[in-house]
Amino acid sequence: MSKAKKQRKKTSLSPSRVIKPDSAAVKPASTLDIIQNRRSIRKFKTDIPTDADIENILEAARWAPSGLNNQPWRFLVIQDKAIKGGLAQFTKYKTIIKEAPVLIAVCMDITESYNRDKDLMAIGACIQNMLLDAYALGLGTCWLGEILNRKEEVSGFLKLSKDLLSLR
Ligand SMILES: Cc1cc2nc3c(=O)[nH]c(=O)nc-3n(C[C@H](O)[C@H](O)[C@H](O)COP(=O)(O)O)c2cc1C
């Protein structure tokens, strides 16, 4: 890869999806409101988020800061029941894994890595962006770290390449 800073791809997604007041008299949520009011959600409605919502969340993820702008994150969007069922065996949070309509596995591309500590910081920022964006879209989320106790098995189950370990 050249040393030039990678340019972030522009997309056609409209930023206007972030909380809109019903009328001009309603004050829009501030960033601090969104940060303070987001909560981890562990029970889900059966409604399925739209593809546009999922794209929006991934866009928020991609705009996270990263050391040297190396953007080491990669994402797997999982909606297939059988895959969710298979993943559930690797965590005590089986119900969340099975019942959340969408899972987003965040992986680190170790071929992009230049400093493991900083790459992990960037991945954390990326995940937080996703949680906040989802909340602003009216969607509940829960960050599941516990499944990483069995990250090698998870990576094998998801058939991740060895360059793309599930937060190795
Ligand atoms: C790195 C990390 C790992 C987490 N892992 C889990 C998890 O495995 N299971 C779970 O239910 N919540 C998990 N959480 C969510 C925390 O429990 C939650 O953020 C915390 O209790 C504060 O609650 P709040 O998110 O509602 O503010 C994790 C959060 C972080 C940042």
Explain what this protein looks like in three dimensions.
The structure is a single chain. By secondary structure, this protein is mainly alpha-helical. The chain has a single domain, classed as NADH Oxidase (3-Layer(aba) Sandwich). The protein is built from six helices and three strands; from the N terminus they run H-H-E-H-H-E-H-H-E. The chain binds flavin mononucleotide (FMN). Flavin mononucleotide (FMN) binds at residues 39-40, 42, 93, 142-146.
SSE layout and pairings?
Layout: H1 31-37, H2 51-62, E1 73-78, H3 81-88, H4 94-99, E2 103-109, H5 116-136, H6 151-157, E3 164-165
Helix pairs in contact: 2-5
What is the 3D form?
Answer: globular
CATH fold naming: NADH Oxidase
**Each distinct ligand:** flavin mononucleotide
> What CATH architecture would you give?
3-Layer(aba) Sandwich
Order the strands across the largest sheet as they lie in space: 1-2-3
Radius of gyration: 17 Å
* Mean pLDDT, all residues: 87
Please provide a brief summary of the model:
The protein is mainly alpha-helical and 168 residues long. It has helices spanning 31-37, 51-62, 81-88, 94-99, 116-136, 151-157, and strands at 73-78, 103-109, 164-165.
